[in-house]
């Protein structure tokens, strides 16, 4: 039994429109409207004759305002990257491709526009990150070289039988090696913290930290150097900060005072309140050294910035104060320098909360 074919099921011959379906012009209009790239048609006089929705979004102007307006710049066939200025004052980086065609006897320039602002920004950020990495590697190599060379020389001395037999001399050399190792550990700590800051991973987990007890713990870690530090106030204060970041900030301030200042070094904690009800814990670290030259003050918290009075044997990487400010701001606070008649005074401000020591 042969089934008769349904006449309605036949497909139209190629090139013919199926009854009730979209025609070619409808499809073209739909494709242009859906395109993520901006498409524009410009006549020989530079007047915009057509623009799709993506083009109006790129220009930040409605279609009725763009259509019929003058493009305002000469066109050349080919590809180019342009900065597209927006009516709001901003700009976009756009890849532009210009071709020509003839339509109904008239020459038309067809422009394809692609917004690459985010891509260009990502490229810039990557270039900056690579540049920072190269600088860090160079600084690390330079700063690690001298301590490692010193340790190597001291080890060679210990291999000498006469030096090894002299108990006093041997203890002195071991102490110097330990000092160099501490120096290297401090430098590596700073480099790792700088890497976490660059990766936006230095925020940590803020918590209530009783300030006085925390300061006493950190001072105890200083060993003999703690004898030159005087601690004032701090009782009853509580900061809301990540403990590891707090320790890093305080350590860097103290190391800066040991390196560039003179004792006594004063550490003071006090509460500051605002009329709006805001509560802060201010911690100042002050030394009695030569202070900071006025022309160097604006550079104090810059990355890899080293003071003119830098002493041999200190870390010298120029990261300490930069780390303090970045960690402080990441934890909702800030860090700055306050000039004093004698010595240098650095302040650390952290969010304060209730719940400190009695």
How far apart the termini lie comes to 102 Å
H/E element sequence: HEEHHEEEHHHEHEEHEEHEE
Give the spatial strand order of the biggest sheet.
2-1-5-4-3
Task: Name the shape in a single word.
Answer: elongated
Task: Report the top-level CATH class of the largest domain.
Answer: Alpha Beta
The mean pLDDT is: 84
Query: Do you know the CATH architecture of the largest domain?
Result: 2-Layer Sandwich
- Give a count of the beta strands, DSSP E runs of length 2 or more: 12
How many domains? The number is 3
Explained architecture:
The protein is α+β, with helices and mostly antiparallel strands. It has three domains: 22-115, Beta-Lactamase, CATH 3.30.450; 120-201, Orthogonal Bundle (Helix Hairpins), CATH 1.10.287; 203-358, Histidine kinase-like ATPase, C-terminal domain (Heat Shock Protein 90). It has helices spanning 24-34, 53-59, 63-66, 117-159, 161-165, 167-198, 211-220, 243-260, 320-330; strands at 38-43, 48-51, 78-85, 91-103, 106-115, 207-210, 229-233, 238-241, 265-273, 279-286, 334-339, 344-351. Helix 4 runs antiparallel to helix 6 and helix 6 packs across helix 9 (320-330). It is elongated, with a radius of gyration of 34 Å.
């Amino acid at each position: 039994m042969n089934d008769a074919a349904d006449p309605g099921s036949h497909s139209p011959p190629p090139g013919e429109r199926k009854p009730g379906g979209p025609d070619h012009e409808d499809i073209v209009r739909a494709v242009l409207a859906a395109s993520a790239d901006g498409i524009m048609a410009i006549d020989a006089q530079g007047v915009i004759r057509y623009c799709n929705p993506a083009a109006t979004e790129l220009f930040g102007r409605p279609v009725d305002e763009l259509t019929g307006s003058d493009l305002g710049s000469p066109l050349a066939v080919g590809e180019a990257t342009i900065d597209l200025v927006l009516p709001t004052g901003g700009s976009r980086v756009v890849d532009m491709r210009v071709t020509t065609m003839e339509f109904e006897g008239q020459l038309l320039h067809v422009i394809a526009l692609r917004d690459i602002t985010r891509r260009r920004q990502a490229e810039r950020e990557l270039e900056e990150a690579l540049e920072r990495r190269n600088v860090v590697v160079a600084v690390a190599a330079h700063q690690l070289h001298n301590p490692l060379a010193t340790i190597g020389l001291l080890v060679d001395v210990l291999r000498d039988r006469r030096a090894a037999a002299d108990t006093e001399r041997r203890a002195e050399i071991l102490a110097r090696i330990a000092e160099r190792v501490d120096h290297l550990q401090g430098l590596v700590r700073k480099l790792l913290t700088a890497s976490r800051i660059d990766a936006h991973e230095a925020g940590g987990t803020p918590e209530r930290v009783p300030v006085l007890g925390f300061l006493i713990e950190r001072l105890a870690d200083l060993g003999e150097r703690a004898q030159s530090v005087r601690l004032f106030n701090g009782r009853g204060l509580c900061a809301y900060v990540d403990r590891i970041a707090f320790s890093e900030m305080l350590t860097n301030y103290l190391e800066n005072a040991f390196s560039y200042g003179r004792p006594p070094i004063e550490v003071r904690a006090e509460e500051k309140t605002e009329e709006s009800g805001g509560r802060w814990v201010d911690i100042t670290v002050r030394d009695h050294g030569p202070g900071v030259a006025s022309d160097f003050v604006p550079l104090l918290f810059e990355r890899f910035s080293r003071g003119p009075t830098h002493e041999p044997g200190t870390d010298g990487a120029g990261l300490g104060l930069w780390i303090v400010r970045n960690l402080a701001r990441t934890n909702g606070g800030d860090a700055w320098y306050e000039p004093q008649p004698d010595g240098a005074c650095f302040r650390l401000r952290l969010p304060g909360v209730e719940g400190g020591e009695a």
